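One-letter codes give the sequence; the fold follows as tokens. Both lines appear below.
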Amino acid sequence: MKEAKILIAEDDEIMRVTLSDRLSRNEWRVDEAKDGREALAKIHQQKYHVVISDIRMPHASGFKLLEELQQVAPNTDVIFMTAYGSINDAVACLKNGATDYLLKPFDMDDLVIRVERLLENQTLKTRYLSLEECCQKFRHPIIGKSKVMQNLLAIIKQIAASDATVLISGESGTGKELVAAAIHYSSNRADGPYIRVNCAAIPENLIESELFGHEKGAFTGADARKLGRFEMADCGTILLDEIGDMPLHLQTKLLRVLQEREIERLGGQHSIKVDVRVLCATAKNLAEEVQKGNFREDLFYRLQVIPVIVPSLRERKEDIPLLCEYFMEKLKQTREKPLTLSNDAMAAMMEYEFPGNVRELHNIIERLLVLHPTETVQSWNLPIDIVGSGSQQVENVQLLASAVAQAEKSCIMRAITKTNGKKSEAAQLLGISRKNLWQKLKLYELDL
């Protein structure tokens, strides 16, 4: 953190200047205070990332400074210095909220390292809070009043309180990630981190480092230690999405993590304990993958402590109107006018099988919001895959009517375009009266 601001509160001038000179070499902005009163004034004037203070100072002690910082700048780290220290003093400092404790005389390079670590932790904390805020912003509710969805919500509520591993299965686009997020945010780990990893999106040669981290020099290009996703998720939850695509050699390591609750970084010599709840999601049939030799049988049974199956959209078609309403409300900022589906359009949507599930429905609504010129969507405005689905006896008539209406609408639009918007000439070109043309423009909601 190049723009870090550090305050040194020290009544010994030689010590104060020495500290300031040494810390300034790291391109940090360093201010000085010669006593407690001046230090208190400075922390009220601006924010500091780190305050390095002697415990005993004229006019106000280091503990008074710490107490004030906890009120005006609780995220500021405080390092105490003293020449009269003991173990009891160190414990007292840390109990009162200090971040670190140094006994004079101390090595200046050691101080620099401690400050660097504090600044790195502050940067990580800021990024974490930003990501958490982003995750909260983009969290979506689970929409559905159908029986299968009510059963699913009941299962989520029931299993959220435990720390058991959950295997979430379902077709692509059904909302498996929403289910995983609901489990996490309904659990007692909701205040902890929620880390998501798409096992299919990370190259095979990088996924081990992503999951478990690595030490400096572990491989070419490993210039610094890197924390893995499991360490980032400590005291929280990790979602391993598309778990069926995890390479076999990593499945063995994952099995050990689940059994021993510890990981080992690449290039590391020691095991690291982690307290993480593991959620897995897959669109594959893992039992079949086991039979094919693509997935370890022991891992499969270890993951499937609590199996959760997310229903496809065709299994809960009564939720389609609710989902359409939710998506139209959520995406309405893309157009000025509201959008509604006619009864025929909704009937066609209810007949459609939606192979892409909820994701496909979302994309269709977004497309209509962007491209449809009028407020009401008719059945002939829907994609041909939807209009062409449904029962044969009823749909043959609907398709004929839709085709005639679409052809008539297209002819009117071409005629008006050819006559540069002149309605009378367009009516003559079409061989109908001007009144008839106006009626058809109103019928098809064409504002030309």
Notes: The chain has three domains: 5-131, 147-311, 315-443. The longest strand covers residues 276-282.
